[in-house]
Design brief:
about 625 residues; alpha/beta; 2-enoyl-CoA Hydratase, Chain A, domain 1; eight-stranded mixed beta sheet; single chain
Protein backbone atom coordinates (compact mmCIF):
# COMPACT_ATOMS: atom_id res chain seq x y z
CA UNK A 1 0.00 0.00 0.00
CA UNK A 2 1.41 3.33 -1.02
CA UNK A 3 0.41 6.82 -0.04
CA UNK A 4 0.41 9.68 -2.50
CA UNK A 5 1.47 12.88 -0.87
CA UNK A 6 -0.15 15.97 -2.44
CA UNK A 7 2.24 18.83 -2.91
CA UNK A 8 1.42 21.89 -0.84
CA UNK A 9 -0.64 24.59 -2.62
CA UNK A 10 1.03 27.82 -3.56
CA UNK A 11 0.11 30.84 -1.36
CA UNK A 12 -1.98 32.44 -4.14
CA UNK A 13 -3.88 29.19 -4.76
CA UNK A 14 -4.59 28.78 -1.04
CA UNK A 15 -5.91 32.35 -0.90
CA UNK A 16 -8.28 31.82 -3.84
CA UNK A 17 -9.58 28.50 -2.48
CA UNK A 18 -10.09 30.00 0.96
CA UNK A 19 -11.89 33.01 -0.51
CA UNK A 20 -14.17 30.72 -2.53
CA UNK A 21 -14.96 28.56 0.54
CA UNK A 22 -15.74 31.70 2.54
CA UNK A 23 -18.11 33.00 -0.12
CA UNK A 24 -19.88 29.64 -0.27
CA UNK A 25 -20.28 29.67 3.51
CA UNK A 26 -21.77 33.19 3.46
CA UNK A 27 -24.12 32.26 0.60
CA UNK A 28 -25.41 29.18 2.46
CA UNK A 29 -25.76 31.19 5.65
CA UNK A 30 -27.84 33.89 3.96
CA UNK A 31 -30.09 31.35 2.24
CA UNK A 32 -30.60 29.44 5.49
CA UNK A 33 -31.39 32.63 7.40
CA UNK A 34 -33.87 33.65 4.71
CA UNK A 35 -35.50 30.22 4.69
CA UNK A 36 -35.86 30.01 8.48
CA UNK A 37 -36.99 33.64 8.60
CA UNK A 38 -39.82 32.94 6.18
CA UNK A 39 -40.66 29.74 8.03
CA UNK A 40 -40.82 31.67 11.31
CA UNK A 41 -43.01 34.34 9.72
CA UNK A 42 -45.43 31.73 8.41
CA UNK A 43 -45.58 29.95 11.79
CA UNK A 44 -46.20 33.28 13.53
CA UNK A 45 -49.07 34.06 11.16
CA UNK A 46 -50.65 30.67 11.86
CA UNK A 47 -50.27 31.14 15.62
CA UNK A 48 -51.73 34.64 15.58
CA UNK A 49 -54.63 33.49 13.45
CA UNK A 50 -55.39 30.64 15.87
CA UNK A 51 -55.05 32.80 18.98
CA UNK A 52 -56.83 35.79 17.47
CA UNK A 53 -59.63 33.68 16.07
CA UNK A 54 -59.78 35.76 12.89
CA UNK A 55 -61.44 39.10 12.53
CA UNK A 56 -64.64 39.64 14.46
CA UNK A 57 -67.43 41.30 12.53
CA UNK A 58 -68.60 44.60 14.05
CA UNK A 59 -72.36 44.93 14.51
CA UNK A 60 -74.33 46.91 11.95
CA UNK A 61 -76.13 49.71 13.81
CA UNK A 62 -79.15 51.82 12.92
CA UNK A 63 -78.67 55.05 10.96
CA UNK A 64 -75.49 53.79 9.31
CA UNK A 65 -74.08 55.32 6.14
CA UNK A 66 -73.04 52.77 3.54
CA UNK A 67 -69.82 53.87 1.87
CA UNK A 68 -69.50 52.67 -1.70
CA UNK A 69 -66.09 53.80 -2.92
CA UNK A 70 -64.83 51.22 -5.40
CA UNK A 71 -61.19 51.52 -6.40
CA UNK A 72 -59.96 49.80 -9.52
CA UNK A 73 -61.40 48.25 -12.64
CA UNK A 74 -65.03 47.17 -12.78
CA UNK A 75 -65.02 43.49 -13.79
CA UNK A 76 -67.47 40.62 -14.11
CA UNK A 77 -65.21 38.30 -12.10
CA UNK A 78 -61.88 38.62 -10.33
CA UNK A 79 -58.83 37.87 -12.43
CA UNK A 80 -56.47 37.55 -9.47
CA UNK A 81 -56.67 34.69 -6.98
CA UNK A 82 -58.24 35.20 -3.51
CA UNK A 83 -54.92 34.96 -1.69
CA UNK A 84 -53.34 37.79 -3.69
CA UNK A 85 -56.44 39.96 -3.20
CA UNK A 86 -56.39 39.34 0.56
CA UNK A 87 -52.68 40.12 0.63
CA UNK A 88 -53.28 43.38 -1.27
CA UNK A 89 -56.05 44.50 1.05
CA UNK A 90 -54.01 43.61 4.13
CA UNK A 91 -51.19 45.69 2.67
CA UNK A 92 -53.38 48.78 2.79
CA UNK A 93 -54.37 48.95 -0.88
CA UNK A 94 -57.37 47.89 -2.88
CA UNK A 95 -57.49 44.76 -4.99
CA UNK A 96 -57.40 46.77 -8.21
CA UNK A 97 -60.64 45.06 -9.25
CA UNK A 98 -64.29 45.54 -8.31
CA UNK A 99 -66.91 42.96 -9.21
CA UNK A 100 -70.05 44.36 -10.79
CA UNK A 101 -72.13 41.75 -9.00
CA UNK A 102 -70.87 42.97 -5.59
CA UNK A 103 -71.84 46.58 -6.25
CA UNK A 104 -75.28 45.55 -7.47
CA UNK A 105 -75.80 43.22 -4.51
CA UNK A 106 -74.79 45.92 -2.03
CA UNK A 107 -77.20 48.46 -3.56
CA UNK A 108 -80.03 45.93 -3.64
CA UNK A 109 -79.45 44.97 0.00
CA UNK A 110 -79.14 48.60 1.11
CA UNK A 111 -82.49 49.35 -0.49
CA UNK A 112 -84.18 46.86 1.84
CA UNK A 113 -82.04 47.24 4.99
CA UNK A 114 -83.60 49.63 7.51
CA UNK A 115 -80.23 50.08 9.23
CA UNK A 116 -78.80 51.86 6.19
CA UNK A 117 -79.87 55.49 6.29
CA UNK A 118 -77.95 56.83 3.30
CA UNK A 119 -75.14 56.04 0.87
CA UNK A 120 -71.90 57.92 0.34
CA UNK A 121 -70.86 57.30 -3.25
CA UNK A 122 -67.35 57.82 -4.60
CA UNK A 123 -66.85 56.82 -8.20
CA UNK A 124 -63.83 58.90 -9.16
CA UNK A 125 -61.46 56.01 -8.39
CA UNK A 126 -63.45 53.47 -10.37
CA UNK A 127 -61.87 52.59 -13.71
CA UNK A 128 -64.30 52.73 -16.59
CA UNK A 129 -65.05 49.38 -18.20
CA UNK A 130 -68.00 50.04 -20.51
CA UNK A 131 -71.30 51.85 -20.77
CA UNK A 132 -73.56 48.84 -20.24
CA UNK A 133 -72.17 47.96 -16.80
CA UNK A 134 -72.15 51.63 -15.74
CA UNK A 135 -75.79 51.98 -16.76
CA UNK A 136 -76.72 48.90 -14.74
CA UNK A 137 -75.19 50.44 -11.60
CA UNK A 138 -76.90 53.74 -12.43
CA UNK A 139 -80.27 51.96 -12.59
CA UNK A 140 -79.62 50.34 -9.20
CA UNK A 141 -78.75 53.74 -7.69
CA UNK A 142 -81.96 55.22 -9.07
CA UNK A 143 -83.94 52.37 -7.50
CA UNK A 144 -82.19 52.98 -4.19
CA UNK A 145 -83.21 56.64 -4.24
CA UNK A 146 -86.76 55.70 -5.20
CA UNK A 147 -86.86 53.52 -2.07
CA UNK A 148 -86.24 56.63 0.05
CA UNK A 149 -82.51 56.23 0.72
CA UNK A 150 -80.45 59.39 0.32
CA UNK A 151 -77.37 59.20 -1.91
CA UNK A 152 -74.55 61.72 -1.57
CA UNK A 153 -71.77 61.63 -4.18
CA UNK A 154 -68.31 63.14 -3.92
CA UNK A 155 -65.39 63.22 -6.31
CA UNK A 156 -62.08 64.90 -6.82
CA UNK A 157 -62.27 64.47 -10.60
CA UNK A 158 -65.06 62.84 -12.59
CA UNK A 159 -64.53 61.24 -15.98
CA UNK A 160 -67.62 61.43 -18.18
CA UNK A 161 -68.30 57.73 -17.55
CA UNK A 162 -67.81 57.90 -13.77
CA UNK A 163 -70.02 60.96 -13.69
CA UNK A 164 -73.02 58.98 -14.94
CA UNK A 165 -73.05 57.20 -11.55
CA UNK A 166 -72.45 60.34 -9.52
CA UNK A 167 -75.29 62.09 -11.38
CA UNK A 168 -77.77 59.58 -9.90
CA UNK A 169 -77.19 60.97 -6.37
CA UNK A 170 -79.46 63.38 -4.54
CA UNK A 171 -76.47 65.66 -4.07
CA UNK A 172 -73.21 65.75 -6.02
CA UNK A 173 -70.17 67.49 -4.55
CA UNK A 174 -66.87 68.18 -6.27
CA UNK A 175 -63.56 69.19 -4.73
CA UNK A 176 -62.92 72.93 -5.36
CA UNK A 177 -59.64 72.04 -7.04
CA UNK A 178 -61.14 69.16 -9.00
CA UNK A 179 -63.04 69.09 -12.25
CA UNK A 180 -65.24 67.25 -14.71
CA UNK A 181 -66.37 67.79 -18.28
CA UNK A 182 -68.25 65.95 -20.99
CA UNK A 183 -66.48 65.69 -24.34
CA UNK A 184 -68.03 62.83 -26.34
CA UNK A 185 -66.93 59.40 -27.54
CA UNK A 186 -64.01 58.64 -29.79
CA UNK A 187 -62.42 55.59 -31.32
CA UNK A 188 -58.87 56.25 -32.46
CA UNK A 189 -56.10 53.67 -32.76
CA UNK A 190 -52.69 53.27 -34.33
CA UNK A 191 -52.13 51.89 -37.84
CA UNK A 192 -48.94 49.96 -38.57
CA UNK A 193 -48.86 49.27 -42.32
CA UNK A 194 -45.94 51.57 -43.06
CA UNK A 195 -43.97 50.38 -40.04
CA UNK A 196 -44.56 46.71 -40.84
CA UNK A 197 -44.44 46.72 -44.65
CA UNK A 198 -42.07 49.58 -45.48
CA UNK A 199 -39.81 49.79 -42.43
CA UNK A 200 -39.66 46.17 -41.28
CA UNK A 201 -40.54 44.50 -44.60
CA UNK A 202 -43.21 42.30 -42.98
CA UNK A 203 -45.95 41.29 -45.41
CA UNK A 204 -49.35 41.05 -43.68
CA UNK A 205 -51.92 38.94 -45.56
CA UNK A 206 -55.53 39.51 -44.49
CA UNK A 207 -58.34 37.10 -45.32
CA UNK A 208 -61.85 38.09 -44.26
CA UNK A 209 -65.51 38.25 -45.17
CA UNK A 210 -67.48 41.45 -44.69
CA UNK A 211 -66.51 44.99 -45.60
CA UNK A 212 -67.16 46.10 -42.01
CA UNK A 213 -64.86 43.53 -40.37
CA UNK A 214 -62.17 46.04 -39.43
CA UNK A 215 -60.35 44.37 -36.52
CA UNK A 216 -57.23 43.64 -38.62
CA UNK A 217 -57.17 46.92 -40.57
CA UNK A 218 -54.42 48.49 -38.42
CA UNK A 219 -51.96 45.91 -39.75
CA UNK A 220 -52.67 46.44 -43.45
CA UNK A 221 -53.77 50.08 -43.76
CA UNK A 222 -52.45 53.51 -42.82
CA UNK A 223 -55.85 54.66 -41.56
CA UNK A 224 -59.41 53.50 -41.00
CA UNK A 225 -61.40 52.45 -44.05
CA UNK A 226 -64.54 54.44 -44.96
CA UNK A 227 -66.67 51.42 -44.03
CA UNK A 228 -65.05 51.22 -40.61
CA UNK A 229 -65.62 54.93 -39.93
CA UNK A 230 -69.23 54.71 -41.08
CA UNK A 231 -70.06 51.73 -38.89
CA UNK A 232 -68.18 52.95 -35.80
CA UNK A 233 -69.73 56.41 -35.89
CA UNK A 234 -73.20 54.87 -36.24
CA UNK A 235 -73.09 52.85 -33.02
CA UNK A 236 -70.98 55.40 -31.12
CA UNK A 237 -73.53 58.15 -31.75
CA UNK A 238 -76.31 55.92 -30.45
CA UNK A 239 -74.40 55.14 -27.22
CA UNK A 240 -73.28 58.73 -26.69
CA UNK A 241 -76.72 60.30 -27.15
CA UNK A 242 -78.12 57.79 -24.68
CA UNK A 243 -75.36 58.66 -22.22
CA UNK A 244 -76.19 62.36 -22.52
CA UNK A 245 -79.91 61.63 -22.11
CA UNK A 246 -79.27 59.53 -18.98
CA UNK A 247 -77.24 62.35 -17.40
CA UNK A 248 -79.79 64.97 -18.39
CA UNK A 249 -82.62 62.96 -16.84
CA UNK A 250 -80.73 62.43 -13.57
CA UNK A 251 -79.71 66.09 -13.24
CA UNK A 252 -82.90 67.75 -14.47
CA UNK A 253 -81.19 69.09 -17.59
CA UNK A 254 -81.93 68.65 -21.28
CA UNK A 255 -79.83 66.72 -23.80
CA UNK A 256 -79.93 69.72 -26.12
CA UNK A 257 -78.41 71.97 -23.44
CA UNK A 258 -75.65 69.47 -22.65
CA UNK A 259 -74.75 69.01 -26.34
CA UNK A 260 -74.69 72.77 -26.81
CA UNK A 261 -72.32 73.14 -23.85
CA UNK A 262 -70.00 70.50 -25.33
CA UNK A 263 -69.94 72.35 -28.65
CA UNK A 264 -68.93 75.54 -26.83
CA UNK A 265 -66.61 73.82 -24.36
CA UNK A 266 -63.52 76.08 -24.84
CA UNK A 267 -65.47 79.30 -24.38
CA UNK A 268 -67.33 77.86 -21.39
CA UNK A 269 -64.09 76.91 -19.64
CA UNK A 270 -62.61 80.31 -20.48
CA UNK A 271 -65.68 82.01 -18.97
CA UNK A 272 -64.99 80.06 -15.75
CA UNK A 273 -61.39 81.36 -15.94
CA UNK A 274 -60.08 77.84 -16.44
CA UNK A 275 -61.68 76.57 -13.22
CA UNK A 276 -63.15 73.17 -14.15
CA UNK A 277 -64.87 72.77 -10.79
CA UNK A 278 -66.57 76.15 -11.15
CA UNK A 279 -67.49 75.24 -14.74
CA UNK A 280 -69.24 72.07 -13.49
CA UNK A 281 -71.10 74.07 -10.83
CA UNK A 282 -72.15 76.82 -13.23
CA UNK A 283 -73.64 74.30 -15.66
CA UNK A 284 -75.57 72.32 -13.06
CA UNK A 285 -73.47 69.17 -13.11
CA UNK A 286 -72.73 69.38 -9.37
CA UNK A 287 -74.57 70.86 -6.39
CA UNK A 288 -71.62 72.32 -4.55
CA UNK A 289 -67.86 72.54 -4.22
CA UNK A 290 -66.64 70.89 -1.02
CA UNK A 291 -63.53 69.14 0.19
CA UNK A 292 -63.91 65.55 1.30
CA UNK A 293 -63.51 66.65 4.94
CA UNK A 294 -66.44 69.03 4.49
CA UNK A 295 -68.57 66.23 3.03
CA UNK A 296 -67.65 64.01 5.98
CA UNK A 297 -68.73 66.76 8.39
CA UNK A 298 -72.01 67.09 6.49
CA UNK A 299 -72.64 63.36 6.90
CA UNK A 300 -71.75 63.50 10.59
CA UNK A 301 -74.26 66.34 11.07
CA UNK A 302 -77.02 64.51 9.22
CA UNK A 303 -76.34 61.03 10.55
CA UNK A 304 -74.69 59.80 13.72
CA UNK A 305 -71.35 61.29 14.74
CA UNK A 306 -68.72 58.72 15.70
CA UNK A 307 -65.32 59.96 16.73
CA UNK A 308 -63.83 56.48 16.44
CA UNK A 309 -64.93 56.01 12.82
CA UNK A 310 -63.10 57.23 9.76
CA UNK A 311 -64.54 60.61 8.82
CA UNK A 312 -66.28 61.03 12.15
CA UNK A 313 -69.64 59.48 11.20
CA UNK A 314 -71.21 56.04 11.61
CA UNK A 315 -70.46 54.08 8.48
CA UNK A 316 -69.89 50.67 6.96
CA UNK A 317 -67.75 49.85 3.93
CA UNK A 318 -69.31 47.92 1.06
CA UNK A 319 -67.26 44.77 1.70
CA UNK A 320 -68.19 44.69 5.40
CA UNK A 321 -71.82 45.38 4.59
CA UNK A 322 -71.95 42.43 2.19
CA UNK A 323 -70.56 40.21 4.95
CA UNK A 324 -73.64 41.14 7.03
CA UNK A 325 -76.24 40.49 4.35
CA UNK A 326 -74.87 37.39 2.63
CA UNK A 327 -76.17 34.06 3.95
CA UNK A 328 -73.39 31.95 5.46
CA UNK A 329 -74.82 28.41 5.71
CA UNK A 330 -74.92 26.22 2.61
CA UNK A 331 -78.20 26.77 0.79
CA UNK A 332 -79.44 23.79 -1.20
CA UNK A 333 -82.49 25.40 -2.78
CA UNK A 334 -83.01 25.31 -6.52
CA UNK A 335 -80.37 27.43 -8.24
CA UNK A 336 -80.01 29.76 -11.15
CA UNK A 337 -76.36 29.32 -12.06
CA UNK A 338 -74.38 32.23 -13.50
CA UNK A 339 -71.34 31.45 -15.63
CA UNK A 340 -69.15 34.42 -16.49
CA UNK A 341 -67.49 34.56 -19.91
CA UNK A 342 -65.25 37.61 -19.77
CA UNK A 343 -62.22 38.50 -21.88
CA UNK A 344 -60.75 37.14 -25.08
CA UNK A 345 -61.74 33.67 -26.26
CA UNK A 346 -58.81 31.30 -26.67
CA UNK A 347 -58.40 27.55 -26.73
CA UNK A 348 -57.68 25.31 -23.76
CA UNK A 349 -57.93 25.87 -20.03
CA UNK A 350 -57.72 29.57 -19.20
CA UNK A 351 -57.74 31.52 -15.91
CA UNK A 352 -60.57 33.88 -14.83
CA UNK A 353 -60.65 37.04 -16.92
CA UNK A 354 -60.07 35.02 -20.09
CA UNK A 355 -62.49 32.67 -21.80
CA UNK A 356 -61.10 29.22 -22.51
CA UNK A 357 -62.72 26.84 -24.94
CA UNK A 358 -62.20 24.02 -22.43
CA UNK A 359 -62.39 25.87 -19.10
CA UNK A 360 -65.58 27.82 -19.83
CA UNK A 361 -67.15 24.73 -21.35
CA UNK A 362 -66.28 22.84 -18.16
CA UNK A 363 -68.12 25.42 -16.04
CA UNK A 364 -71.22 25.09 -18.22
CA UNK A 365 -70.93 21.32 -18.00
CA UNK A 366 -70.71 21.53 -14.21
CA UNK A 367 -73.96 23.49 -14.18
CA UNK A 368 -75.55 20.94 -16.51
CA UNK A 369 -74.58 18.00 -14.29
CA UNK A 370 -75.65 19.66 -11.02
CA UNK A 371 -79.21 18.59 -10.16
CA UNK A 372 -79.71 21.71 -8.02
CA UNK A 373 -79.14 23.98 -11.03
CA UNK A 374 -82.44 24.51 -12.85
CA UNK A 375 -81.43 27.33 -15.23
CA UNK A 376 -78.25 29.05 -16.38
CA UNK A 377 -77.35 32.65 -17.13
CA UNK A 378 -74.29 33.06 -19.34
CA UNK A 379 -72.89 36.53 -18.66
CA UNK A 380 -70.88 37.53 -21.72
CA UNK A 381 -68.39 40.39 -21.81
CA UNK A 382 -66.10 39.61 -24.73
CA UNK A 383 -64.96 40.95 -28.06
CA UNK A 384 -64.47 37.38 -29.25
CA UNK A 385 -61.44 35.35 -30.28
CA UNK A 386 -60.82 31.91 -31.74
CA UNK A 387 -63.66 30.38 -33.73
CA UNK A 388 -63.07 26.78 -32.59
CA UNK A 389 -63.01 27.74 -28.90
CA UNK A 390 -66.21 29.76 -29.41
CA UNK A 391 -67.86 26.74 -31.02
CA UNK A 392 -66.87 24.52 -28.08
CA UNK A 393 -68.73 26.85 -25.72
CA UNK A 394 -71.76 27.16 -28.02
CA UNK A 395 -72.09 23.37 -28.04
CA UNK A 396 -72.25 23.34 -24.25
CA UNK A 397 -75.06 25.90 -24.36
CA UNK A 398 -76.92 23.56 -26.70
CA UNK A 399 -76.24 20.62 -24.36
CA UNK A 400 -77.76 22.55 -21.44
CA UNK A 401 -80.91 23.20 -23.43
CA UNK A 402 -81.08 19.55 -24.46
CA UNK A 403 -80.92 18.67 -20.75
CA UNK A 404 -84.03 20.79 -20.22
CA UNK A 405 -82.25 23.64 -18.46
CA UNK A 406 -83.09 27.09 -19.88
CA UNK A 407 -80.13 29.27 -20.85
CA UNK A 408 -80.36 33.05 -20.83
CA UNK A 409 -77.52 35.23 -22.08
CA UNK A 410 -76.85 38.55 -20.40
CA UNK A 411 -74.60 40.71 -22.56
CA UNK A 412 -72.34 43.07 -20.66
CA UNK A 413 -70.32 45.93 -22.13
CA UNK A 414 -69.27 43.94 -25.21
CA UNK A 415 -70.59 40.71 -26.72
CA UNK A 416 -69.36 40.92 -30.27
CA UNK A 417 -68.00 38.55 -32.90
CA UNK A 418 -66.97 35.41 -30.97
CA UNK A 419 -68.83 36.90 -28.00
CA UNK A 420 -71.98 36.77 -30.10
CA UNK A 421 -71.10 33.26 -31.31
CA UNK A 422 -71.24 31.84 -27.78
CA UNK A 423 -74.48 33.76 -27.09
CA UNK A 424 -76.61 33.05 -30.13
CA UNK A 425 -78.11 29.68 -29.10
CA UNK A 426 -79.52 30.83 -25.77
CA UNK A 427 -83.26 30.62 -25.13
CA UNK A 428 -83.24 34.38 -24.53
CA UNK A 429 -80.63 37.09 -25.16
CA UNK A 430 -80.61 40.28 -23.10
CA UNK A 431 -78.43 43.28 -23.87
CA UNK A 432 -78.19 46.72 -22.39
CA UNK A 433 -79.12 49.52 -24.77
CA UNK A 434 -75.43 50.52 -24.76
CA UNK A 435 -73.96 47.04 -25.14
CA UNK A 436 -71.62 46.68 -28.12
CA UNK A 437 -72.57 43.58 -30.09
CA UNK A 438 -72.83 42.12 -33.58
CA UNK A 439 -69.57 42.08 -35.59
CA UNK A 440 -70.68 38.80 -37.11
CA UNK A 441 -67.72 37.90 -39.29
CA UNK A 442 -64.34 36.20 -39.18
CA UNK A 443 -60.84 36.86 -40.47
CA UNK A 444 -57.34 35.43 -40.61
CA UNK A 445 -54.13 37.39 -40.47
CA UNK A 446 -50.95 35.77 -41.85
CA UNK A 447 -47.60 37.60 -41.60
CA UNK A 448 -44.67 36.51 -43.77
CA UNK A 449 -41.07 37.64 -43.24
CA UNK A 450 -38.88 36.83 -46.28
CA UNK A 451 -38.11 40.49 -47.03
CA UNK A 452 -37.31 41.11 -43.37
CA UNK A 453 -34.85 38.22 -43.31
CA UNK A 454 -33.20 39.33 -46.54
CA UNK A 455 -32.34 42.67 -44.93
CA UNK A 456 -30.06 40.84 -42.53
CA UNK A 457 -28.69 38.50 -45.19
CA UNK A 458 -30.88 35.49 -44.44
CA UNK A 459 -32.71 33.62 -47.21
CA UNK A 460 -34.94 30.56 -47.15
CA UNK A 461 -34.42 27.71 -49.61
CA UNK A 462 -34.91 23.94 -49.78
CA UNK A 463 -37.14 21.26 -51.24
CA UNK A 464 -40.57 19.78 -50.66
CA UNK A 465 -42.21 16.55 -51.75
CA UNK A 466 -45.34 18.25 -53.11
CA UNK A 467 -46.21 21.58 -54.66
CA UNK A 468 -47.64 22.94 -51.44
CA UNK A 469 -45.25 21.41 -48.91
CA UNK A 470 -44.00 24.34 -46.87
CA UNK A 471 -46.46 26.71 -48.53
CA UNK A 472 -47.46 28.14 -45.15
CA UNK A 473 -43.91 28.66 -43.89
CA UNK A 474 -43.88 32.26 -42.63
CA UNK A 475 -40.27 32.73 -43.73
CA UNK A 476 -41.35 32.28 -47.39
CA UNK A 477 -43.59 34.34 -49.64
CA UNK A 478 -47.21 33.28 -49.52
CA UNK A 479 -48.17 31.68 -52.81
CA UNK A 480 -51.39 33.02 -54.43
CA UNK A 481 -52.80 29.47 -54.53
CA UNK A 482 -52.20 29.10 -50.78
CA UNK A 483 -53.96 32.43 -50.27
CA UNK A 484 -56.92 31.07 -52.21
CA UNK A 485 -57.07 28.07 -49.88
CA UNK A 486 -57.04 30.31 -46.80
CA UNK A 487 -59.77 32.56 -48.23
CA UNK A 488 -61.88 29.46 -48.92
CA UNK A 489 -61.48 28.45 -45.26
CA UNK A 490 -62.57 31.93 -44.13
CA UNK A 491 -65.52 31.98 -46.56
CA UNK A 492 -66.68 28.64 -45.21
CA UNK A 493 -66.29 29.89 -41.65
CA UNK A 494 -68.43 32.94 -42.37
CA UNK A 495 -71.13 30.82 -44.00
CA UNK A 496 -71.04 28.60 -40.94
CA UNK A 497 -71.32 31.62 -38.62
CA UNK A 498 -74.33 33.22 -40.32
CA UNK A 499 -75.94 29.81 -40.82
CA UNK A 500 -75.75 29.06 -37.10
CA UNK A 501 -77.05 32.53 -36.26
CA UNK A 502 -79.91 31.99 -38.70
CA UNK A 503 -80.80 28.63 -37.14
CA UNK A 504 -80.66 30.12 -33.64
CA UNK A 505 -82.70 33.21 -34.52
CA UNK A 506 -85.20 31.48 -36.84
CA UNK A 507 -84.08 33.37 -39.94
CA UNK A 508 -82.37 32.57 -43.21
CA UNK A 509 -78.65 32.96 -43.79
CA UNK A 510 -79.41 35.63 -46.38
CA UNK A 511 -81.35 37.68 -43.82
CA UNK A 512 -78.55 37.40 -41.27
CA UNK A 513 -75.99 38.40 -43.91
CA UNK A 514 -77.69 41.78 -44.32
CA UNK A 515 -77.02 42.66 -40.65
CA UNK A 516 -73.73 40.79 -40.38
CA UNK A 517 -70.66 41.33 -42.63
CA UNK A 518 -68.67 42.30 -39.57
CA UNK A 519 -70.80 45.33 -38.68
CA UNK A 520 -71.00 46.42 -35.04
CA UNK A 521 -74.27 47.49 -33.39
CA UNK A 522 -75.34 48.98 -30.10
CA UNK A 523 -77.78 46.95 -28.00
CA UNK A 524 -80.73 49.00 -29.21
CA UNK A 525 -79.67 48.67 -32.84
CA UNK A 526 -79.18 44.92 -32.38
CA UNK A 527 -82.70 44.62 -30.93
CA UNK A 528 -84.14 46.42 -33.94
CA UNK A 529 -82.33 43.94 -36.21
CA UNK A 530 -83.41 40.81 -34.35
CA UNK A 531 -79.99 39.89 -32.96
CA UNK A 532 -81.11 40.15 -29.31
CA UNK A 533 -84.50 39.54 -27.73
CA UNK A 534 -84.87 42.21 -25.05
CA UNK A 535 -83.09 45.09 -23.37
CA UNK A 536 -82.09 44.50 -19.76
CA UNK A 537 -79.22 43.91 -17.40
CA UNK A 538 -77.89 41.00 -15.39
CA UNK A 539 -80.65 41.11 -12.77
CA UNK A 540 -83.34 41.03 -15.46
CA UNK A 541 -81.68 38.06 -17.16
CA UNK A 542 -81.48 36.13 -13.88
CA UNK A 543 -85.15 36.75 -13.18
CA UNK A 544 -86.04 35.59 -16.70
CA UNK A 545 -84.03 32.38 -16.29
CA UNK A 546 -85.91 31.60 -13.08
CA UNK A 547 -89.19 32.29 -14.85
CA UNK A 548 -88.32 29.98 -17.76
CA UNK A 549 -87.53 27.23 -15.24
CA UNK A 550 -90.84 27.85 -13.39
CA UNK A 551 -89.05 28.46 -10.07
CA UNK A 552 -91.58 30.91 -8.66
CA UNK A 553 -90.50 33.97 -6.68
CA UNK A 554 -88.69 32.85 -3.50
CA UNK A 555 -87.86 29.17 -3.93
CA UNK A 556 -84.48 29.64 -5.60
CA UNK A 557 -81.13 31.34 -5.24
CA UNK A 558 -78.31 32.56 -7.48
CA UNK A 559 -74.98 30.72 -7.56
CA UNK A 560 -71.93 31.71 -9.57
CA UNK A 561 -70.20 28.67 -11.05
CA UNK A 562 -66.49 29.48 -11.06
CA UNK A 563 -63.15 27.86 -10.55
CA UNK A 564 -62.58 27.25 -6.85
CA UNK A 565 -59.37 27.81 -4.96
CA UNK A 566 -57.38 24.86 -3.63
CA UNK A 567 -57.78 24.01 0.10
CA UNK A 568 -54.31 25.41 0.78
CA UNK A 569 -55.17 28.58 -1.13
CA UNK A 570 -58.35 29.02 0.91
CA UNK A 571 -56.32 28.54 4.09
CA UNK A 572 -53.84 31.23 3.08
CA UNK A 573 -56.65 33.58 2.09
CA UNK A 574 -58.35 33.21 5.45
CA UNK A 575 -55.03 33.55 7.22
CA UNK A 576 -54.05 36.82 5.56
CA UNK A 577 -57.63 38.08 5.84
CA UNK A 578 -57.65 37.58 9.61
CA UNK A 579 -57.01 40.55 11.88
CA UNK A 580 -53.74 39.15 13.16
CA UNK A 581 -52.45 38.20 9.74
CA UNK A 582 -53.57 41.53 8.31
CA UNK A 583 -51.71 43.48 10.97
CA UNK A 584 -48.48 41.63 10.31
CA UNK A 585 -48.68 41.63 6.52
CA UNK A 586 -50.09 45.14 6.41
CA UNK A 587 -46.88 46.55 7.83
CA UNK A 588 -44.60 44.48 5.63
CA UNK A 589 -42.90 46.49 2.90
CA UNK A 590 -41.60 43.17 1.58
CA UNK A 591 -45.13 41.80 1.17
CA UNK A 592 -46.35 44.94 -0.58
CA UNK A 593 -43.38 44.91 -2.92
CA UNK A 594 -43.89 41.24 -3.65
CA UNK A 595 -47.53 41.89 -4.46
CA UNK A 596 -46.75 44.73 -6.85
CA UNK A 597 -44.58 42.39 -8.90
CA UNK A 598 -46.88 39.39 -8.62
CA UNK A 599 -49.95 40.88 -10.31
CA UNK A 600 -48.75 42.11 -13.70
CA UNK A 601 -51.22 43.65 -16.16
CA UNK A 602 -50.94 42.16 -19.62
CA UNK A 603 -52.53 43.70 -22.67
CA UNK A 604 -55.22 41.20 -23.58
CA UNK A 605 -55.56 42.19 -27.18
CA UNK A 606 -51.86 41.63 -27.85
CA UNK A 607 -51.96 38.32 -26.04
CA UNK A 608 -54.93 37.25 -28.13
CA UNK A 609 -53.23 38.30 -31.36
CA UNK A 610 -50.15 36.31 -30.43
CA UNK A 611 -52.33 33.30 -29.70
CA UNK A 612 -54.23 33.31 -32.97
CA UNK A 613 -51.01 33.66 -35.00
CA UNK A 614 -49.57 30.52 -33.40
CA UNK A 615 -49.95 27.64 -35.89
CA UNK A 616 -51.99 24.56 -35.04
CA UNK A 617 -51.20 21.12 -36.48
CA UNK A 618 -53.54 20.36 -39.35
CA UNK A 619 -54.57 24.00 -39.76
CA UNK A 620 -52.69 26.44 -41.99
CA UNK A 621 -54.38 29.34 -40.22
CA UNK A 622 -56.68 30.03 -37.27
CA UNK A 623 -60.06 31.55 -38.08
CA UNK A 624 -60.74 34.44 -35.71
CA UNK A 625 -64.02 36.05 -34.71
CA UNK A 626 -62.86 39.15 -32.87
CA UNK A 627 -63.86 42.79 -32.57
CA UNK A 628 -61.55 45.57 -31.35
CA UNK A 629 -64.65 47.59 -30.51
CA UNK A 630 -64.34 48.26 -26.78
CA UNK A 631 -64.45 51.94 -25.79
Amino acid sequence: MSTVVQPPRAPLSRFIVGLWDGMNFIRRLILNLLFFGLLFLFALLVLLAIVGGGSRQAPLLDRTTLVIAPEGELVEQYRTDPFMRALAESGGGGTGEVQLRDVLRALEAAKQDARIERVLLRTDRLTFSGYASMREIADALAELRAAGKQVVAFGEYFGQQQYLLAAQADEVYLDPEGGMMLEGLSGYRQYYREALADKLSVDMHLFKVGEYKSAAEPYILDGASPESKEADLYWMNDIWQRHVADIAKARGLTPEAINAEIDSLPSGIAAAQGDLAQYALDHGYVDGLKTFEEVEQLLADRGVADEDADGGFRQVAMRDFLAHVEPRPADRRAQVAVVVAEGGITGGDQPPGTIGGESTSALLREAREDDHVKAVVLRVDSGGGEVFASEQIRREVDALKAEGKPVVVSMGDVAASGGYWISMNADRIYADASTITGSIGIFALVPTFPRTLEKIGVRTDGVGTTRFAGAFDLSRELQPEAGQAIQAIIDRGYRNFIGKVGDARGRSSEEIDTVARGRVWSGTQALDRGLVDELGGLRTAIAKAADLADLGTDAWRVRYVEKTATPFGRFLTGLVGSRAGGLLVGHSDFARGLLARAVPRAEQDLRLLESVMTPVPGKPVKAVAYCFCEL
